[in-house]
Write a structure and sequence with these properties.
The chain is α/β, with parallel strands linked by helices. The protein contains 15 helices and twelve strands. Bound molecules: manganese (II) ion.
């Protein structure tokens, strides 16, 4: 539990960290269903009524808590930190948060350290003018971090951002966390809304909008674009709504009043680059299939093409008799100085939990931090290469290094794919 000195009249809010699904179940039943916020939109329609019966007490409670947190931080400047390779869910929700916070005169900058590497993400940011900025380590040096009074994590819990340590070292407090990934560690934040059973963070933010945190106005261009971005985020995290559950559909239904279908179509029309196609080709060539798992190492990949890895996993999982695909490679920056093993998992097997699978396969580093995790049907991991990073002038060395990492990752994955209960081999 933490006590933030800036919180005076709202100290009770600090009791709201670490929600877990069990608590939530209890709250759903014990807290009454009456929504007390006066600014609640009247036009919730039949769908709204239905949803009210279903966990709306949690939504109204979280909405109120978030509003109190924002009130307590009026006129401040905040950094909204996204994962290094932000996806449409993260980007759209960060923008929504920025628009909500604006009403409290809170100025937010949406930042990420990596790149926008998926063609659809680039199209999303360009076509909607989505206000996200890339901050490299170099950018960080030019910034005066003392001018920010808080930071916010959206669609992540800080474990996938290179910016986190600098922001923490500058002493900026964590104010808000909204995410749908499994809880990675105890979070010291004033406001926490982590709901691993929700399919997209965009669903959570749409619920905030619906509960009155910001009244969308379809005559405002910016609101229409933001609703379109949210729709894109929601669709992309639910496999085009195929894995959506009731509350995701309810959120999509609400967004359908405001979003621009043509704009969304333009975003989705972005084509795969040749380099992404090359990585998919390598994944196909290198894949091994065992027990319905398809595993492929794709070697070295440029930083800007990092998103080719999940796209290759998306492709491999479509093969007949394959329910789970894992694709990984060594991602390196322009100067080859920074190297990291990055992998993605995709599964259609309902009983396979990507979060558990990745945590079990790769374990933790010396500080106890897991190399990765996941959500429904998708997961990812990152293994830093430390001392072995860089130094690839010599191609024999680069090849050897890849082979070692490739063999080690395969070994760890295959241990779970083909569990051997009996260590004595019969052959
Ligand atoms: Mn997400």
């Amino acid at each position: 539990m933490q006590f933030n000195p800036t919180l005076t009249q709202f100290e009770s809010l600090s009791l709201t960290t670490e929600p877990n699904p069990e608590d939530t179940e209890i709250e759903k039943e014990s807290v009454d269903l009456i929504l007390t916020r006066p600014s609640l939109p009247q036009s919730t329609g039949e769908g709204g009524v239905y949803q009210m019966q279903r966990g709306n007490s949690l939504i109204s409670q979280k909405t109120e808590e978030l509003q109190k947190t924002l009130l307590a931080h009026r006129h401040e400047r905040q950094l909204v930190i996204l994962q290094d390779f932000p996806d449409p869910d993260a980007l759209s929700c960060a923008w929504t948060y920025q628009l909500i916070a604006q009403q409290y005169d809170i100025k937010c900058e949406i930042i990420y350290a990596g790149t926008l590497s998926h063609q659809e993400n680039i199209a999303l940011v360009k076509l909607t003018n989505l206000p996200a900025q890339r901050w490299t380590q170099q950018t960080l040096k030019t910034k005066d971090l003392s001018s920010y009074q808080g930071f916010v994590l959206i669609d992540n819990q800080g474990t996938t951002s290179q910016l986190l340590s600098a922001v923490q070292q500058a002493g900026i407090p964590l104010v808000v966390v909204v995410d749908h990934h499994s809880l990675q560690s105890e979070l010291k934040s004033e406001f926490v809304d982590v709901r691993p059973y929700v399919r997209a963070t965009a669903t959570i933010f749409t619920q905030y909008l619906q509960a009155g945190l910001l009244a969308l106005d379809s005559s405002m261009n910016q609101h229409v674009k933001c609703a379109t971005a949210l729709m894109h985020g929601l669709r992309s995290d639910t496999n085009r709504l195929m894995q959506a559950q009731e509350e995701d559909f309810m959120a999509a239904a609400y967004l359908s009043r405001f979003y621009d279908a043509q704009l969304l179509n333009a975003i989705l029309q972005a084509n795969r680059s040749k380099r992404v196609m090359d990585v998919i080709e390598r994944a196909l060539k290198n894949r091994i299939v065992q027990n319905n798992f398809s595993i492929a190492g794709v070697g070295y990949i440029r930083y800007d093409d990092r998103d080719a890895i999940p796209q290759a996993a998306d492709f491999l999982v479509t093969e007949e008799n394959v329910h789970t695909a894992v694709v990984y490679g060594i991602v390196h920056d322009e100067d080859d100085e920074l190297e990291v093993v990055i992998g993605s998992l995709r599964t259609t097997k309902l009983t396979l939990d990507p979060d558990e699978f990745i945590k079990e396969a790769f374990g933790q580093d010396s500080t106890g931090r897991f190399f990765g995790g996941g959500r429904t049907s998708a997961g990812g991991f990152e293994v830093p290469m430390g001392f072995l990073s860089g130094g690839n002038e010599n191609s024999a060395y680069a090849k050897m290094k890849w082979e070692v990492f490739d063999a080690q990752i395969k070994q760890k994955l295959l241990r779970l794919v083909n569990p051997r209960d009996n260590p004595i081999q019969s052959e």
